[in-house]
Amino acid sequence: MVYSNPVPAEMVSGSYYNDSGASYYLSPAKLESDYAEVRFRRELKFFRKHCGAGSVLDVGCSSGALLFNLQRSFPGDYQVVGTDVSSAPLDYAESRGVPVIRDNFLTHDFGGRQFDAITFWAVMEHLSSPRTFLDRAGELLKPGGLCFVLVPNLRSLAMRCLGSKYRYIYPQHLNYFSKSTLKRFLETRLSVEEIDSTHFNPMVIWQDFRSGGAEVSNAERAHLLKKTTAYKQSPWLQPVRAFYTITERCLGSLNLADNLVAVARKT
Fold first, then answer.
1. Is 123 helix (H, G, I), strand (E, B) or coil?
2. How many Å apart are CA 247 and CA 3, to the nearest integer?
3. Which of 228, 224, 226 is nearest to 211 (CA)?
4. Does the predicted TM-score (pTM) go above 0.85?
5. Total count of domains within the chain
6. How does pLDDT run across 150-206, given as a tens digit for each residue?
7. Which helix (H) or strand (E) holds 56?
8. Secondary structure letter of residue 235 according to DSSP
9. Which of 95, 106, 147, 163 has its CA 20 to 30 A from that of 61?
10. Which domain holds residue 71?
11. What is the CATH number of the domain that holds 28?
């Protein structure tokens, strides 16, 4: 397992996301991209494949975009709620009609409530004690309930090409999972049903290669997210997207795509 040591205090407490990190998660460029219909297309396809309906808790929901898109895509099929350590993004989530819990996920009293699915989309890599969160999720899942986890892929093509120059090796990321370590991690509490490799952003690889690993600001990250979202929406780029999709699938089959996405069941 690859992880950060020591971990900055603001990352352990989560105060970073309520202070300096909030400007990124609530930037107009990121919000516009996150709430676009194409933004979580892969995640929702994977989720829908395994969970066709039920109650869903999104841990680390940020501005609520994933749950918003889940309800927009499949109205009436899911009862959703999100939670996060950062209050400002939760304000925004509520403004878009996403129910939220304003409390610590680890200590909140759910009053005996259990869920059909609990999701950690791009969250486990940010946690100083991910096992504690996985154990809590296991307690809150119904028998047969599903836990979904998406994390960066330590063995991706981008990681192999760029190493420490890759922009996603940075202070906010405390854990770096490979397919094997993610599987072993989940199996400490749950039964793994599927692990896939997904997403591929050649623009990031090119930019980080050219910059030699120079620090990428939150504003730049949001700008690139907005740009790539626009590319996905443009009808003029349909032929390019077809080629891109084939490339992404090939990398995914070799476990070289940018992210790992897994689903594990409470047995």
1. coil
2. 29
3. 224
4. yes
5. 1
6. 999 999 999 999 999 999 998 899 999 999 999 999 999 999 999 999 999 998 999
7. strand 54-59
8. G
9. 163
10. 2-265
11. 3.40.50.150
